[in-house]
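Table S2 (continued). Query chain:
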Amino acid sequence: MTYQEHSKNVANEFIQSIAFIDDRAYQSSDTSNRDLHDFDAQAISLAFAKHEKLCAVYQPAKKEDIDSFSKLAQKADVTVIDWQINLSEPLGINSQSNEEDDETDDERGQYTKQIIVELLKNNRNGLKLIVVYTGETDLAGITENIRKDLKTSEISLDSEESEGTCTITASPYFKILVIGKNNSAEATEGKVNYKDLPDFILTEFAKLTAGLLSNFALQSLAKIRQNFYQILALFPAELDKAYLANQSLLGIEDTNEQLIEVLGDTFISILRANRLQNPLDKNRAFQWIESQDSLCTDKAKAKALYEPGCIKKKLEVAFHDSKVKERNAKLMGFFNVSEDENKKLAQLFHHKNLIVFDGHTPILSLGTVVKSIKEGDEGLYYVCIQQRCDSVRLTSDEPRRFLFLSLKKAESGWDLITQDGTNLKIDKKTYGIRTVKFTGAGEVIAQCDSAGGDSSKLYFTPFYGGDEKFEFIFELKDLYAQRIVSEYSANLTRVGLDESEWMRIHSK
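Corresponding output:
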C-alpha cells in the first residue's frame, strides 16, 4: 500500500455525507432527452451507495431554497453544486437557455457563488471540499469567475493557482474544484461521470489531509464519531442527580471543568480501544518517506532510522557525529525541518489551549503563562505555579495570593515558546518567585476580562489595582506544569554546606 492509498482509506473512513445542489435533478433514468446540464439523482445516489456514503440531492426552486441549502451545505462533508441554477422564482434574473455562458460575466453562477461565499465566511477554518459540477465547457473561465467573486467579497485565498487551472485553495483544508459533467461512460479530460465521481471526490478530499498528523487527527475523529453511542452510554440521565449534588458542593466552575476533562478522557479511551495510540509504525514511516520526493534527501538513510536498534547508535552512523547537538541539528536538516515547524510542533505538545473561540474565558491556575503589562515597562513573563485546588473557590471580598515563577527571554536553552515564537526560560532560583493577590469572579475563580476594547487580548486584574495587569498568554498542559513545580520544589530542598572548596571541586 502506498501512502496515498492510506490517505484515501482514512478519508473514506471519515466522509459520511455528500450534499448535491442542482436545479436539473431528476429521478427518471430515461436518457433520450438528456443534455449536458441534466443531473440524474437516482444514478448518483446509487453510485455513492456502493461506496457506503449518504448522498442527499436538493433541487432549489426559489431564492429561499438557496438560503436554506447554504446553511445545510455547512453540515455536509462534501458539497457538490451545479454552476447553472435556474429558479422558478428568479427574482428578476432573466431565464437562460441551455447554451454556454457568454464571455461576459452573466448571472448563471450567482447562486453558486453565493453558496460558496457563505460556506467560506462561516467555515473558513473548517475542512471542506466544494465541487462545482457543471455542464459548461469553459471550466477555467468559471474558476476565474469564482476567484474574482471571492476577492470582491474580501475573502483572501491561501494560494494563487496559475490561470487555466480549475482549483481554488481558500485555506489548507478548504478547496474548490470545477469539473464538467459527463453523462457518457467514456472518459473525457476535465469531466467526470457518475460512476467515477465517488472515487474522484475521495481522492481530492484525501489530498487535503494527506499528512501524517492530519491523517491521525482525521482517523481519530472518524473513530469518535463511529463510537459516539459508547460515549453517550457513559453519561446517562440517571447520573444527573449525583452530578448536580456534587456541583452544589464544589461550585459550578469546578464541576464544569471536571466534566470537560472526564469527556476528554473518554475520547482517549476510544482512540486506544481502536489502537490509534501508535499512529506511526515502521511501515507507515516508509510509506511517507517514499511519498516525499522533495522533503527527504536520502530515502535509504531515512528508512534506516526506523529499523530496530538503538536510536543513538543509528544516528551516530547516519550522521557520523556522536555529539548530541550537532547530530540532532543534522537530523533536522536532513528532513528539511525549519525552526518555525519545530516551534509549532513544540506548541502542539506543550500548550493546552490550542483552540480558542470567542467567549472563551481562561482561568488563573497551575500552568497559566501571563505577561505583566505596566506603563513604561516592556513586560515580564510569569508562569503560575499555584496548585489547582488552591486556585478555586475564591470570593470577591477575600483576596488570595497566587504564586508565580519568573520567565526570561532566551536565545538558547529555553523551556517554553509562546504563540508568537518568543523563547522563554524558567528562572528556577528560589528568590525568582513572586506573589500577586487576586479575587474570584462570581465567587469561584480568577478570570480574564478584555480591556481597552481589544477583545483579542484578555487580562487578569490584581486585587491591589494600580496600572499593572497581567495579559493571558497561554496555558501549559497539566504534566508539563506539574514538572515545573516538582523541579522548583526540589530546588527548595537542596542542602547548602560549608565544606572544603578543594573537596567540592574534585567531587564534580
